[in-house]
Design goal:
about 80 residues, mainly alpha, 434 Repressor (Amino-terminal Domain), about 55% helix, about 0% strand, globular
Length: about 80
């Protein structure tokens, strides 16, 4: 049975941006995880929007991708209905 993607855009959006940046560098999830000091399954869950990424792990991933952390959150806007 396929996994359902997270409905919360605050989880989906950074995951999509991480995946896009990882693809641009031709890295596997395992390679990115190793560079960031994280587990491959965690990276996969973040990319699918299944995990709430911490600021520290966002910084680790951005550093591993050699990009600014803000590049993983472009266009994020808060709408009252999206908060919780």
């Amino acid at each position: 049975m396929p996994r359902a993607r997270a409905k919360n855009p605050f989880l989906r959006h950074p995951g999509y941006e991480i995946q896009k940046a990882r693809y641009a560098l031709n890295l596997s999830q395992e390679q990115l995880a190793a560079h960031a000091g994280l587990h491959r399954t965690y990276v996969g869950m973040v990319e699918r929007g299944e995990r709430n990424i911490t600021v520290i792990n966002l910084m680790r991933i951005a550093t591993a991708l050699d990009i600014e952390p803000g590049a993983l959150l472009p266009g994020m806007r808060v709408k009252p209905k999206d908060v919780f």
